[in-house]
Design a protein that fits this description.
The complex is a heterodimer. Chain A is an all-alpha fold. Chain A has 14 helices and two strands; from the N terminus they run ααααααββαααααααα. In chain B, strands 1, 2, 3, 4, 5, 6 and 13 form a seven-stranded mixed sheet that branches. Classes of the chains: A mainly alpha, B alpha/beta.
Chain lengths: ~290, ~425
């Protein structure tokens, strides 16, 4: 009897692993294809694309596509710009949106529910619908810098950062998470005379690691993949991010090997960021049911 | 010592005032990511800046695929440069939309230019190109010989029947995956550029060019219907594939998959490398004369430029034969003048691609010169893709006409 139970358990385990491996293959193989293709000359890449060789480091393997990609476009500048814009936006967004979420959940003030409803309503607006009015606005906004007051934000980092710091989705994520925190903790802290800032900093933030990680990953992906907005506001090469840079590789005769090399290079920061926050992200999904 | 101090001060002042006098002109160009093209345009700018003391051109390069969107965004933000480049068929739209102003160059200097690179709208010259591009029916002499086909010439191109007989022969030989590669993998502007000349050769057009106020009759008349049926027949009868892997478009002819390929001069050198006996044949004559598309990228001046005279001076400077030849040698395009062609490796008499100069000179027809073209091109592309995939020809062309006419009406006739 126990033998049969053990056999069933073993079979279930094998089946489970088989399914998991299959799913992993489906998700990993495009990345493997990209990486392997980035090492092959175009002709071989195209020949291999229809069979299993596309996923193997076989044939004429070299780093030539990477060298050529650097010659074709200022890859390092694009990656730096994207990492800078994304990093600053994510950091400021976490700070501002978590503070907003905190105010919506724990602080009582007039018009709170109406404002939250309005904020959530912005979730249904696609960015494309506000892109042109936003462009016309930022093109004429003032800025105070080291050289005094200037007009127009085009061709700058700030035009890629500031409009994206606060957004309805991130505030919503924090609101949902904060609602599940034990209210007694906050009340006890208030009774003890703690300020709102102290409660936010010393009680809420330490308990909210998973949602910070989730919000950071979601924001990171949105910002790192920005294309339309930077295309509209950066006419100078020095401010362009990676996704606009990708277009440098689509000439009349597309150099697919270089495209794959470029994609491999710009995927590294995304993977590194995800792996860094992976545990907290999974914990957040497990505890809140929030999905990216 | 005093004398030296005075001389030094005078020199510094003179240098300073000269530097101040040089007015900066901003310029946008679509060549980012193309190393050779960037090098040539930068050389022209460096030569111009060094040739005079009044103007200094500063370049911002954009990747071609993102260029038009960047210009439109720049126009909305009131941030266009002094000099920009524009794809020939798009120019009337930008001029009509108020993005561009007419050039102030001596038109005597462009008399010898091919017609395609001259960008006229509303009777005024708005843009001028240093080159043109042309499409040819690419095949190998060996195939023509094996299939027993006459080699068509500019004077005596293949008729529709001869062309179809050639496709039949190629198909019957069993040697090829498909007899004809129209280039279905290249979407976007390729469709109106490469395929609308077939329609025009049948006697139809994307829009009625006599008024530019309707597509009725032009795109759904008798000639257009005949074109549509022929076009659908190419795919239905197995001469060509309606959908194509981009890899096959790039390398299919060289791999021997197709007997004939409809392709441009920009791909010619690679084809010649694959098959030294490659021949570039003129477009077939479907009844209304053989036609191919014309007009490529051209220089223009933005409407917001405060220095159109400086921008015009730069453009006029760039029109020198040596620069036309540099672009041609660098990226394989057809120089805009015969004298420049004679200075190139590929287009001089006896050069491997000299035939293209004759093709563009003898067959080229610019795409409809109307601001509505940008919409009409997309409607035409969709209609042709649908017909290739089996949609009813008459219904599809009628729907395309309705869509084009509605757009013309919505935009008040586009100023025609």
């Amino acid at each position: 009897m126990s033998m049969i139970a053990a056999d069933n358990r073993g079979l279930r385990l094998v089946t489970r692993y088989a399914v998991l491996i299959l799913i992993a293959i489906i998700f990993i193989f495009p990345l493997v294809f990209m990486l392997m293709s980035s090492l092959k000359p175009d002709q071989q890449l195209l020949q291999d694309s229809g069979n299993l060789r596309a996923f193997l480091p076989v044939g004429d393997i070299s780093l030539q596509n990477y060298t050529d990609a650097f010659q074709r476009a200022p890859v390092a500048t694009f990656v730096f710009n994207s990492v800078l814009v994304t990093g600053v936006t994510v950091a400021l967004s976490l700070l501002l949106c978590s503070a907003a979420g905190f105010a919506f959940v724990f602080v009582r003030w007039k018009g709170r529910d109406t404002l939250l409803a309005l904020l959530l309503a912005t979730l249904i607006l696609p960015f494309e619908t506000i892109a042109i009015p936003l462009l016309m606005m930022v093109a004429h906004l003032p800025w105070v810098g080291f050289d005094g007051v200037s007009w127009g934000w085009l061709n700058s980092y700030r035009v890629q950062i500031i409009p994206f710091i606060a957004d309805g989705l991130t505030v919503f994520l924090f609101v949902q998470y904060f609602k599940d925190l034990p209210g007694e903790l906050i009340e006890a802290a208030r009774v003890e005379g703690a300020s709102w800032w102290q409660i936010y900093r010393k009680i809420v933030m330490p308990l909210s690691g998973p949602i910070f990680a989730t919000a950071a990953i979601l924001k990171f992906l949105v910002m790192y993949n920005q294309y339309l907005w930077p295309l509209m506001v950066t006419q100078e090469e020095g401010y362009r991010p990676v996704m606009v840079g990708l277009q440098y590789f689509f000439q009349l005769n597309v150099a697919w090997g270089e495209v794959m090399a470029y994609l491999s290079m710009i995927t590294v920061p995304v993977l590194a960021f995800y792996l860094y926050l992976q545990k907290a992200f999974i914990a957040s999904i497990a505890s809140t049911g929030v999905k990216g | 010592m005093k004398m030296f101090t005075f001389a030094a001060s005078a020199a510094i002042l003179a240098w300073g005032s000269a530097a101040q006098a040089q007015q900066t002109l901003s310029m946008w160009y679509h060549g980012a990511g193309n190393e050779v093209e960037s090098k040539i345009i930068n050389q022209i700018i460096a030569d111009f800046n060094a040739s005079q003391a009044d103007w200094k051109v500063e370049l911002q390069s954009f990747p071609q695929a993102a260029y038009n969107d960047s210009v439109v965004a720049g126009a909305l933000a009131g941030n266009l440069p002094d000099i920009l480049d524009v794809d020939g068929p798009v120019m009337p739209n930008w001029a009509w939309a108020g993005y561009m102003q007419p050039l102030q160059i001596d038109e005597a200097k462009i008399e010898a230019f091919l017609p395609g690179p001259k960008g006229y709208w509303d009777g005024k010259l708005y843009s001028i190109g240093l080159w043109d591009a042309a499409v040819a029916l690419v095949t190998r002499q060996a195939y023509l010989d094996e299939l027993g086909l006459r080699t068509p010439t500019l004077e005596q191109p293949w008729t529709k029947d001869e062309f179809m007989a050639a496709l039949d022969a190629a198909k019957a030989s069993g040697k090829f995956e498909y007899a004809f590669d129209p280039g279905m993998a290249w979407t976007g502007e390729w469709y109106p550029y490469a395929f609308s000349p077939f329609l025009q050769s049948f006697g139809g057009d994307i829009v009625d060019r006599t008024t530019y106020k309707t597509a009725e009759g032009a795109l759904n008349g008798e000639a257009a219907m005949a074109f549509g049926e022929w076009w659908q027949g190419l795919f239905k009868n197995g001469y060509a594939a309606a959908t194509q892997d981009p890899a096959d478009r790039d390398g299919g002819f060289a791999a021997g998959k197709y007997a004939f390929s409809w392709n441009g001069n920009w791909a010619a050198l690679n084809t010649l490398k694959a098959f030294p006996d490659t021949v570039f044949l003129p477009a077939p004559d479907f009844g209304n004369g053989p036609k191919i598309g014309a007009a490529s990228w051209q220089f223009g001046i933005s409407a917001s430029s405060k220095h159109p005279e400086g921008a015009s001076a730069f453009i006029e400077f760039a029109l020198q034969d040596k620069y036309l030849a540099d672009f041609s040698n660098g990226i394989g395009l057809i120089p805009a003048t015969k004298t420049a062609a004679a200075m190139t490796e590929n287009y001089k008499d006896g050069g491997p691609m000299a035939v293209f100069f004759g093709l563009t000179e003898g067959q080229a027809l610019v795409r409809p010169v109307t601001p509505g073209y940008v919409v009409q091109a997309k409607v035409f592309e969709k209609a042709l893709a649908d017909i290739a995939n089996g949609a009813d020809v008459a219904a599809t062309l009628d729907a395309a006409v309705d869509e084009i006419n509605a757009d013309i009406e919505k935009n008040g006739g586009y100023g025609h």
